[in-house]
Amino acid sequence: MKALQKSEPSEGLWMTRAPVPEIGPDDVLIRINKTGICGTDIHIWNWDEWAEKTVPVPLITGHEFAGEIVEVGKNVHDLKIGQRCSGEGHLIGKTSRQSRAGKFHLDPETRGIGVNEQGAFAEYLKLPAFNVVPLPDEIDDEIGAILDPLGNAVHTALSFDLIGEDVLVTGAGPIGIMAAAVARHVGARNVVITDINQDRLDLVAEVADVVPVNVAHEDLKAVVSKLGMREGFDVGLEMSGNQIALDQMVERLVMGGHIALLGIPPGKSPVDWSRIVFKAITIKGVYGREIFETWYKMIAMLQNGLDVRKVITHRFDVGDFKDGFLAMKSGKTGKVVLNWR
Ligand code: NAD
Ligand code: ZN
C-alpha cells in the first residue's frame, strides 16, 4: 500500500510502499478515504527537537482520518465490513488506575498512532475495534477526517459551563476557531477570539459568529468595554500556546474565572502565579479528547447544527501531499485535508 512515512531522521516525509497491516483478533482494518494534516504532523515533518525524541524512524505518520472498515478481527462482533468510521488515535492501556476507573483519556500509558505507532497516512490503517467511532450518514469523510482536532476543541470548550457566559479564546488556529464555534453553538453570550495573524482572523468570520480581535493592533480591554462586559470574561480557552496570550487572558478574566489550557507552549514559560491566586482562577489542562464522551457530544452537535466545514480551506490529492504541507506551513490556512482515493 501507499504510505506517507518518516523514513529518515531529517526534514520531510516520503511516499513509500508498505505492507498492508495484519490485524489481530481485537482490531479492524480501515481503508483510508481522507486524512487531515495536524500541527503535530508539521513538527514531525520539520523534525524538531520534540519529534526527534518522540517519533521512531521509520514510521507511517498521521492520526486524523476517516475511512471504511474492510476487515474485522475474530473477536469483533459489533462492527461490520463497510461501516464508515473515524476513530480515536490515542491507544490506551487497560490496567492503570485511571483506565480502570473508566477515565480512558487519562491513562498514563497512552500511545498515539502516527506519533508512536504506525499511523493513518496510508491506504490502510490497523486500529483496535475499541477505538473505532462509526460515522452517521450526515457526517461525510472530510468532516470525519477533522474530528480529532474538533474533539480537542470540544473537549476544551465543554470543560466549563458556557451557557450565558462571556468567553475568550486565544489563538485562531483551526482548533481555536472550532472552539469558538462550539462556544457559540452551546449558548455562550459574548465569544471573542484573538490572534496576531490576520489571515486566521479573517477565516473566523467564515466559520463562527464571534468577535475576532487582532491583538497586534487592537486593545482587548477596549473590546471588553465596547461589548458591555463590566468585569471581563468568565471563561478562557487558551489555544495558542503563547505566553503573551495567556497573560492577556489572566488579565481580562473576572475574579473566580476559569481557564482551560489546550495550547502547548514551546518550552517552560514564566507564569504570574500570584495574579492567578489573587484572582482565584481555576485552571484545567486539557489533553486529547475524553474517550468517548467528547466523541459522543461532538457528533451530537454536528447532527444538530454545529457547522465547522469552512475551517477546511485546502484539499489536495495525496500525490500532492508536499503542497498540502507547504500550505499548512505557510500559517495562512485552516485545516488541510488529503484525499486518498
Ligand atoms: P495553530 O498553531 O494553528 O494556532 C495557534 C494560533 O495562535 C496561531 O494562529 C497563532 O498566530 C496564534 N497566536 C500566536 N501568538 C498569539 C497571541 N499572542 N495571541 C493570540 N494568538 C496567538 O494551532 P492549532 O492546530 O489550532 O492548535 C492550537 C494549540 O493547541 C497549539 O498550541 C497546539 O500545539 C495545541 N494542541 C494541543 C493538544 C492537546 O491535546 N493539548 C492537541 C492538539 C493541539
Ligand atoms: Zn491532530
From TrEMBL:
This is L-threonine 3-dehydrogenase. The lineage of its organism: Bacteria, Pseudomonadati, Pseudomonadota, Alphaproteobacteria, Hyphomicrobiales. It comes from the Bacteria. Pfam families: ADH_N, ADH_zinc_N. Belongs to the zinc-containing alcohol dehydrogenase family. GO terms for molecular function: oxidoreductase activity, acting on the CH-OH group of donors, NAD or NADP as acceptor; zinc ion binding. Keywords: Metal-binding, Oxidoreductase, Zinc. Residues 12-338 form the Enoyl reductase (ER) domain. NCBIfam families: PRK05396.1. Residues 1-18 are annotated as: Disordered. The keyword ATP-binding does not apply. PANTHER family: L-THREONINE 3-DEHYDROGENASE. Its cofactor is Zn(2+). InterPro entries: ADH-like_C, ADH-like_N, ADH_Zn_CS, ER, GroES-like_sf, NAD(P)-bd_dom_sf, Zn_alcohol_dh.
